[in-house]
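Record pair follows.
FIRST:
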Amino acid sequence: RQTNRQDQDSLTGIQRNAQRLLHLVNQMLDLSKLEAGKLKLEAVKSDIVAFLKARAYAFSSLAEHKHILFAVELPEEKIGAYFDRDKLEKIINNLLSNSFKFTGEGGSVTLKGQAITQDYKDWMQIQVVDSGKGIPTEEINKIFDRFYQVDSAQTRDQEGTGIGLALTKELVELHHGTIQVESTPGQGTTFTLLLPLGKEHLKETEIIQELPLPAEVTGAEEASIHPSELLVHPQDHSLEEESEKKAEKPLVLIVEDHQEVRRFIRETISPHYQIQEAENGVMGLEMGRELLPDLIISDVMMPQMDGYALCEKIKTEELTSHIPVILLTARADRQSKLTGLETGADDYLAKPFDAEELQLIVRNHIEERRKMRKRFSQEITLEPHSISITSLDEQFLRKVLDIIEAHMGDENFSVEDLSREGGFSRVQFYRKLKALTDQSPSQFLRTVRLKRAAILLQQKSDTVSQIAYRVGFSSLPYFNKCFKDQFGITPGQYASAGQEVK
C-alpha cells in the first residue's frame, strides 16, 4: 500500500536504527573474531591515496550538515600500499566519525596523509586532526579500552559504546601498524596512524589477488549512517497561532538530545497532545519558561544541562514550579531513581520504556493536574494555602491575591496591570494562572472581586451598591449579574440569607 509521510519517516527511522545496530553487532563480531584469531588480514596492493579520498568524500555531507570545516590534505601522486580495504575503511570511518562527534559547529576536522621514512622503514602516515573538546590527560591511556567512554558524565555531549576505538586499534595492529593519540582539552585531538609500506611485513596468507578499488562512496550514503546522531532545532511554533481545536490539546515539551528517541516519543503521544521539542537541557529550560507546557518529558543524560538539573530548576522557579516532569534514563538503579525523585521529578521511567506505559503515565499526570485545577476552581477562597499544591505555587497565588486586594476598588485595574505588577508577560501570566486555577486572568480577577463582595455582604458592612463599587464594579446591574452567575442568587438575597463564602 502507499505510505503517508509519517509512515515513511517511521520506516526511515527503523532502517537507520537497524543499520546502526547492524554496524554495532558487526564491530562486536570483529572483536570476537580477533580474540579467537579468526579475523585474517586480506591485503591487496592498491592506491591508498585514492582510497582515502573516497572515504573523505563520504563525510562531506556530514561536515556540511554540522557546519564543520572539513579539509583533506593528501598527496597528488599515487602511493601503492598493501592493505585490507574493508578493515581500513572501518579504521578511517571510526576515526572520522569520532572526530565529527566531538567537534562542535564552527570547528574543523582534517584528514592528512603522506609517505614518510622512520626507523629506516617506509610508512604511510595517516592523521585525523580535529578542533573538538579534547580528551583529559588522565583519560588518554584508556580510550582504546573496550566499552570505555571518555564522555560518561550526566551531560555527555555524544552517545557511544566504547567499541569503535578499541576495534580501530585492533585492526591497525592487524595491519602491523601503530596508532597514537595526542590531545589538549578544549583545543582538539590528533590520531596518528602508521601503516608499513611494501609487503615484507606480511605473511603470504595475508595477501590476496589485487582487485580494483571500489567505487567512491557518495556523501548521501555516509549521511544515511549518521543522521540519528545529528540534532535538529525544534520548530518554533507559537501557541497563539494554533487552531482552536489544536489549542485544546495539552502541551507536552520533550527534552531529549537523541533525535530518534525524540521522534519515537513524539509519535507515541502526538495524537493526543501538542508537542514541542528541545535538544538539550538549556534549550528545554528556556522553552519551559516561555511555553509553560502542561508536562515535560526529559532525558537525564544530555549535553550542557542534564535532566536532574533541568528538573530542579523547573521545580524551584515560581513561573514553572507547577509543571509535572517525567525523567527518562538508561540508569535504572535505585540510587539514580532516588536522585531523580529528590530533584522534584513527578515520575521516573527507565529506558527502554514501553510506549503504552509512557502514554499511561503522561495521561495520568495530565488528568491529575486537570482534576486539581477543577477542584481549585470550584473551591477557591482568598487563602491559597488551603490548596494542596507546592509552596511556590502558593507564593504565586498569594502574590496575585495581594496585588488584587491592593487595587480592589479600582475599576480600571486590568489584567495587563495585574501581570505587569506580578513580573510576568501577559502570555506567561495567562498560562501559569490557567494551569493552576483553570481560569483566565480576567475570570480570576472577577472571581476574587466577587468573593470579596460576598464577605462584605455577609458582614453587612455596607449597601449592595456601595460594596459593588468597593470591589471594582462600576455598574450595579453588571455586578448583580456576575454575582448571581457565581453564587446562584442575587447580592440582596445573599446578604439576607447570611450565607458563608464558598
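SECOND:
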Amino acid sequence: MKPGIQLAYAAARLAGHLRRRKRQITPLPPRPAEPGISVVIPSRNGKELLAAQLPGILRELPPAAEVLVVDNGSNDGTAAWLKATFPQVAVDLSAHPLSFARAANRGLESARYSRVCLLNNDMLIDPGFFTALDRAFDAVPDLFCATAQIRFPKGVRREETGKAVMAQTNPEDFPLRCDDPLPEEDLTYVLYGSGGCSLYDANRLRQLGGFDPVYEPAYVEDLDAGFRAWQRGWPSVYVAGAGLEHRHRATTSRYYSPQQLEQMLEVNYLKFLTCAVWSPATFRRLWTQALDRLRLRSDRQTLQQSVRIAGAGGPTLVPVLAEEKVLALTNGTVFVFPGHAPTGKPRSVLAATSFQRSQRADHDEVLVVQTETSVAPPSAVRESYIEIVVVHKGPSTALSFEAALEQTIRKWQPQTVEREPALKP
C-alpha cells in the first residue's frame, strides 16, 4: 500500500461519519406545459455529430414536439450552421463551455412541452424511439424517467445497455453497472435513466431543481436525479422498444484523457453519496464501500478529496420510499415482463415461488415470483397475466422481493394480494 493511503482513508472515514444535514435543493419554477416532447441536446463543437443525428430525430418527432440544441462554447460554427441547415431547430448559445448538468438545465428551463428528452449529440435513434419512451408514461404511474436500450457500433464493446443497476460483485468493481436485458424484458425498474438518452417528466424534474450542477463537468448527474426521484416515489424504467446507437464519449474524449474521465466518475460518485443519500445507515454503508474500493485501488488523490466532499453535507428532505428498498429493487435481481393487455377486470397480485398459470379468470392478475435463476417466464405463463415480475435469488433476496411486491402494488393498485405460505412475512 502506498505511503499515506491509510491516513487518507482514515480521514475520509471520519469525514463521512461527521457528515451533517445541510443541503437543500431549490426547485426550478414550474411551467404550464402542453402535452408533447421537448428534445434537448447539449453539444460542444459537435457539428459533425449533429449532422448525423438530427435527420433521424426530425423524422421521428411526434406532431407536438420541439428540438433545442444547447451549444456550449463551440468554435466550429455550430450555431450558424444549425440556423442555416436546420432552421426548425432552436439554438441556445453559451459563449463558454458548460457542464452537462448546466447545459441540460438551460434546455429544461426553455422547454415548452410536458416531457423532456435528453440526448447526447453522439446518439443515433431507431425508428419508434420517442413513441416507445412516451408510452411508458401511460403504463407506469408517477413515472419520472423512461430510458432507452443502448447499443454500440459494430465491433465496439458494449459498455452501456440502458439497464442501470447498483451492484458490486467484486470489491474493486465500480458499484454501478449496466446489465444485459433478458429476452422480452420491458419496463424493468432501474436506479436511473442515462442522461444521454432518456425521457423525463419535465415538471417532476423541475421539482428536483433540475440536474445538480455540483457534478462538474460531467457524469453521475443522471444517477443523482434518478435516485432523488425514487426518494419521492417517482420510478424510472428501462424501455426495450426505444433503441439507439451510442458513439461513446465522442465529445468528452476530445477534451479529457481516459484517466481524467475516470477521475471525474470517482469524484462525482462520492459527491452523489454525500449529496443525495438521506439515511445515515445507508450512507455509511455505501460510503465505506466506496472508500474501501479506493483504498484497494491505491487512489490516494480521490481519498483526499473525499474529506472536502463529505463536508458539503447531506440532504434534509426525508424520503417517501426507504432508500434500502429502492436499492434492493434496482440491484439487478428484479425483472419485469409484460403479459396480455388489461381487460378492465378487477386486479389482483399473486406472490409465488414458481412460474404458474393464473387461476383467476375473473381478475387481471400480476405474478411476482421468486426464482433460483434469472430467466424469462414461459410464454404460456406470460399470456395468463398482465405482468410478471421476476425476483432472482441473491444476497438481498427478501428485501428485493418485498420491494418488488410493494412497487407492483403501487403500480397496479390491486383489489387483492395473495402470498404463498413460504412468502408470508
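COMMENT: The chain is about 35% helix and 25% strand.
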